[in-house]
From TrEMBL, chains A, B:
<keyword id="KW-0784">Thiamine biosynthesis</keyword>
<dbReference type="GO" id="GO:0009228">
    <property type="term" value="P:thiamine biosynthetic process"/>
</dbReference>
<feature type="binding site">
    <location>
        <position position="33"/>
    </location>
    <ligand>
        <name>Mg(2+) 3</name>
    </ligand>
</feature>
<keyword id="KW-0067">ATP-binding</keyword>
<dbReference type="GO" id="GO:0000287">
    <property type="term" value="F:magnesium ion binding"/>
</dbReference>
<feature type="binding site">
    <location>
        <position position="79"/>
    </location>
    <ligand>
        <name>Mg(2+) 4</name>
    </ligand>
</feature>
<keyword id="KW-0418">Kinase</keyword>
<feature type="binding site">
    <location>
        <position position="219"/>
    </location>
    <ligand>
        <name>Mg(2+) 3</name>
    </ligand>
</feature>
<keyword id="KW-0479">Metal-binding</keyword>
<feature type="binding site">
    <location>
        <position position="127"/>
    </location>
    <ligand>
        <name>Mg(2+) 1</name>
    </ligand>
</feature>
<feature type="domain" description="PurM-like C-terminal">
    <location>
        <begin position="157"/>
        <end position="310"/>
    </location>
</feature>
<feature type="binding site">
    <location>
        <position position="48"/>
    </location>
    <ligand>
        <name>Mg(2+) 4</name>
    </ligand>
</feature>
<feature type="binding site">
    <location>
        <position position="79"/>
    </location>
    <ligand>
        <name>Mg(2+) 2</name>
    </ligand>
</feature>
<feature type="binding site">
    <location>
        <position position="50"/>
    </location>
    <ligand>
        <name>Mg(2+) 1</name>
    </ligand>
</feature>
<dbReference type="InterPro" id="IPR036921">
    <property type="entry name" value="PurM-like_N_sf"/>
</dbReference>
<keyword id="KW-0808">Transferase</keyword>
<keyword id="KW-0547">Nucleotide-binding</keyword>
Length: 333, 333
């Protein structure tokens, strides 16, 4: 049997049960954005790691080395943000093709440094080694959070409003611009930048974890059609989502209109926006919106609600139920 | 300029100064086997990570998937051992070629599980993704150690005896058996097993860190000719090492004799033995040897001594100074 027949989640399901017995109390194992470990009386430790492979996650011809260095840290900081945590430090493992220019690597590390400085996160170690052909970058990030404050995928409750912290689909639109080799100007360059330079929503996550009534949380890496299902499975709940409520940038709308792309497919199925997806008790939404807008000068968007039921998403558009077959980005599709 | 002109350490030297400013107090950055972070009043956190790339660190045709899974954890546990620490948990990032058999991965994870169970270290998370061609495996391990007990590369003192916890060169001999396609029987199979299934010296490291007079410590991953230099540079000391005192297994001696390989080149320059290299106050060696032998039923070996002076190794054989040009394994050689 080939791996592509069962996919990455199928593979994880095959080995993870045998490791359950090794978990001691207070350890959260495989299955959330970060692992949670006890650190001290006040705080828990968060750990997350992401492996970026050339020609799978990025094309060397399409992303500048500086953007690549920036993004490789951003996607991990986003996992820390998605629990409500604060990053402590990063670890970089990099496997480098032997003919690579040092100048390329200098730029890559300049991008890595720029985001490290922006979020004041030190680089604490790693591994530098050789690759036969493809550049491989693994970043591991440690973070911390006050004990008991981490927001998990399993915390959604029936009646919760389902919310997202910012526009959806920009990154997927940017990827289409790159793959279709469209001129990167105006709206098109905006989308490509959103794809190459995502921002981890650390401050937003910090506000949300402090706010009573915010329940489940995760970051949007594979697209809400896929990511929301993780929350539903972990929480044992169903969801209703209104496609017409998905927040979409004007830039994406205009590009979709002129290219004939379906905007709600990109907004629901496209990955790598790295906005936060969270659920909030319905009676707390208004107060949270006020606090959120006050602090960030932008609002979050309610896109649906959590219900009792089998873990699936019931989509609607302008009040009419619709089937939605295109899933999120599947690594082994 | 190509990376192979400056090597991996040259690359690290280029970017690490710019990250210094981001280090806050109590954080040990790049440069030791593990990073050390404050965890709580009693303990520090240790973090290490290693990236294994197919056709660079392993050949899929030469190592079984079970051995590969075992070794990918072992080399990281060895870094925890080398500080005197105890492992807490592991994180596995794996990039998989799409045509790979699930059965191969099952075996790989069985090996990963075997060592996890042997040392009672849970798998706490990771990332599973696709690779275009080569299998890539990054393991990150967290460990802990009582505050102030971690043994660093910088702690060697003039007059210290330089010691190793077990035989040297077996792994390098095993690699030569594999690369020369020799029949893997008897002594030859012993060496290959030492190459494919290294054991992290966690218990040994735990005894050593408790023992007054044990100063610098690291694990032997690149060969003592290379690894000892890291201690000398970090400590600002010189070393005298007696090639004739290097501990060598009978198996390696016999294979070297019949193949015409130079045993002390393998023992001094060959990597991946994952024994511990440590320095001990001269007047504590005898007491330490007694405690070590008592606990492990084997002795460690004194191979030379630390002296004041420029960070270099002065080699001798049977009392005569010798030049030693072949360095340890250089990833970008």
């Amino acid at each position: 049997m080939k791996l592509k027949e069962i996919g990455e989640f199928g593979f994880i399901d095959r080995f993870s049960p045998s490791f359950q017995e090794l978990l001691t109390k207070n350890l959260t194992g495989i299955g959330d954005d970060c692992a949670i470990l006890p650190m001290n009386d006040q705080e828990d430790l968060l750990v997350t790691t992401d492996l970026l492979m050339e020609d799978v996650h990025f094309l060397r011809s399409a992303i500048t080395p500086g953007q690549l260095g920036y993004k490789s840290v951003a996607v991990n900081l986003s996992d820390i943000a998605s629990m409500g945590g604060t990053p402590i430090g990063t670890f970089l493992s990099i496997a480098i093709p032997p003919d690579m220019d040092v100048e390329y690597l200098d730029e890559l590390m300049a991008g890595y440094h720029a985001i490290s400085q922006k979020y004041q996160v030190p680089l604490l170690g790693g591994d530098t080694t050789k690759s036969v052909k493809h550049l491989a970058i693994n970043v591991c990030v440690l973070g911390k959070i006050e004990k008991g404050k981490a927001r998990l995928r399993s915390m959604a409750q029936a009646g919760d409003a389902i919310c997202v912290s910012g526009p959806l689909g920009d990154s997927a639109g940017g990827l289409k611009v790159v793959l279709n080799d469209l001129a990167q100007v105006d709206d098109y360059s905006y989308l490509v930048e959103r794809h190459h330079l995502p921002e981890p929503r650390i401050a937003e996550g910090n506000l949300l974890k402090e706010f009573g009534g915010v329940h489940a949380m995760m970051d949007i890496s594979d697209g809400i059609a896929s990511d929301l299902k993780h929350i539903l499975k972990a929480s044992g709940k169903a969801a209703r989502v209104k496609l017409d409520q998905l927040p979409v940038s004007d830039e994406l709308k205009r590009v979709c209109q002129s290219q004939g792309w379906k905007v709600d497919e990109l907004a629901s199925g496209g990955g790598e926006d790295y906005e936060l997806l969270f659920t909030v008790a319905a009676d707390r939404v208004e107060a949270l919106q006020k606090a959120f807008t006050n602090q960030f000068g932008k609002s979050f968007t309610v896109i649906g609600q959590i219900e009792a039921g089998e873990p699936q998403i019931h989509w609607s558009r302008n009040g009419n139920a619709v089937e939605f077959s295109k899933g999120g980005f599947n690594h082994f599709g």
